[in-house]
Design a protein that fits this description.
InterPro entries: RNA_pol_sigma_r3/r4-like. This protein has one domain. Helix content is 74%, strand content 0%. The protein is elongated, with a radius of gyration of 18 Å. The two termini are 21 Å apart.
């Protein structure tokens, strides 16, 4: 997996061959997209978990500095991304076996994770 940081961006921009630049940029973009999808799922799961322990959507929104409507959008986005996602290169998929093999996620409960992850 590519670690995309400022140095990587400069390295890509400095490639002499424009097609090499385009390929490297595409690879970096794919990595970032995959990470964004995973982070969206993680955020969704965290919101669901907070609600399961009794936090109201308004309180979650206040704590995160967003509106309750934005919380709904975050949850929906995390769930939608799971519905049509191809496996992210380098990251494990959301199989039951994977989630149960990660202790902190196992404690959260597999049924909830299947909602967002």
């Amino acid at each position: 997996m590519i670690n995309v940081d400022v140095r990587t961006l400069h390295d890509i921009a400095a490639l002499p061959d424009p097609l090499d630049q385009a390929r490297a940029a595409s690879n970096a973009m794919a990595t970032l997209q995959g990470q964004s999808i995973e982070l969206s799922r993680i955020r969704c799961q965290a919101i669901v978990e907070a609600q399961q322990v009794g936090m109201r959507q308004e309180e979650i929104a206040r704590q995160l500095g967003v509106t309750p409507g934005r919380i709904s959008q975050m949850k929906k986005a995390g769930m939608e991304k799971d519905a049509h996602r191809p496996p992210v290169a380098g990251l494990p998929g959301p199989s039951r076996g994977f989630w149960w093999s990660v202790p902190c996620l196992h404690r959260r409960g597999c049924v909830v994770l299947k909602t967002c992850a």
